[in-house]
Amino acid sequence: MLEQDADVTISIIELSSTDYSVLKVAVTLLERNRLKVRLLEKGNTAGTLVLIDFDTPSGKDFYTHFNYARHRAMLLLSTETLNDHRNLVLKKPLRVQTLKDVLYDLYLGLNPQLKTVQLSKQPEVETSHLPSNPFNPQNNLFFVLFKALQAKSVIQVFCSPHSPLFVNTISGIIASSISNETLRKIISSQSYAFKSTKLSSADFEILAKGQVIVPLNQVLWNAALYGSQGQLIEGHSPEIPIQLKAWPNLSRLDFEPHHMKLASIMAGKALTLKQIHLKTNLPWETIVGFYNAAYATNLIVINPANLPTTPTSKSAPPVKASLLAKIANRLKIAS
After folding, report:
1. Does the pLDDT value for residue 245 go beyond 50?
2. Which residue stretches of the chain are H helix?
3. Peptide bond into 93 cis (omega under 30)
4. What are the angstrom distances between the C-alpha of 41 and each of 46, 54, 86?
5. What is the separation, in whole angstroms, between the first and last Cα of the chain?
6. From what superkingdom does this record's organism come (predicted)?
7. What is the pLDDT of residues 248-307, one digit of tens each?
8. 90 and 160 share one domain
9. For 332, left (φ over 0), alpha (ψ -120 to 50), or beta?
10. 29 occurs within a structural domain
11. In a domain, 128, yes or no
């Protein structure tokens, strides 16, 4: 395939011969599924997706000076358990299946108009065989993760029949081979009963090998937003005033227009969730999901006393606040 015909071109920075061989197999599997990807020659760093061996000096240097302005993405490969909030991290050793799934997620991220493309062997999240369990916070992914975060625990979350999540709340990361698409479907399903068990930090480091490393806050945010099922965090009341103390980083978190509306209202004067429900007429599940997500990521103040009516410049830079306000006004959702 010619470079100009590819939807995604892949450059490499300092990959070992073994890692490069794994990459070539993964790319071949994507091509067999009619995805237009092209692996560029070594030395050509102009790809829309760049795989970087972060363990090498030249890899670290390229990462430091990388230009995101041209709608490009990076995938960091490392023996270390990195926590990078902007780029996906894959902990070595590389595995073909995991790398292929990560490349597929990145392919869709760079080409959102192609999200109807499906890998022929991509497993579907089948829930019809699972019982429709009554809501139990102990078995809900958001509440399992939030409880672990509060306890500063290291845990393994079972997502049968899919791969488990290895969660280190101390380092603020999750390691797993589950694709983003599968994880989204699991989160939004009401049929899964998530179970967990404690791990040691040493166990986590071993189990994280060959897995994708993602920030805990990103998964926690999505799990709350789409999986809270209208259930508030234990001990929280819909009748106590709350206020958003900083805008969520919506450039790195999933959101929909109604979440922008909620952020705009919650960043104003303090209101109870019941008042917000009446003011917005949004579904209760949507309001609770956003509240849980914002609280779990340390963006909410409960019963604020002497807070300003809008987030301070320290919490949200004026430029970003102005930009988000413009977006909100354009969507006609400002309070």
Report:
1. yes
2. 17-32, 57-64, 96-110, 141-151, 180-188, 201-207, 216-227, 257-266, 273-280, 284-296, 318-330
3. yes
4. 10, 19, 26
5. 50
6. Bacteria
7. 887 778 888 999 999 999 999 899 999 999 999 999 999 999 999 999 999 999 988 754
8. no
9. left
10. yes
11. no
Tell how many helices (H) and how many strands (E) occur in the chain.
11, 12
Structure-token pair, residue 105: 């997620």
Q: What is the mean pLDDT of residues 184-194?
A: 78
Q: Which amino acid is at 332?
A: K
Residue 123 lies in a domain: no
The two structure tokens encoding residue 185? 């479907």
CB-based contacts of 182, cutoff 8 Å, min separation 6 = 123, 125, 162
Name the β-bridge partners of 301.
Answer: 243
| 265 and 322 part of one domain | yes
Provide the token pair at 169.
């709340």
Bridge pairing between strands 242-244 and 300-302: antiparallel
Contact 55, 79 (CB under 8 A): yes
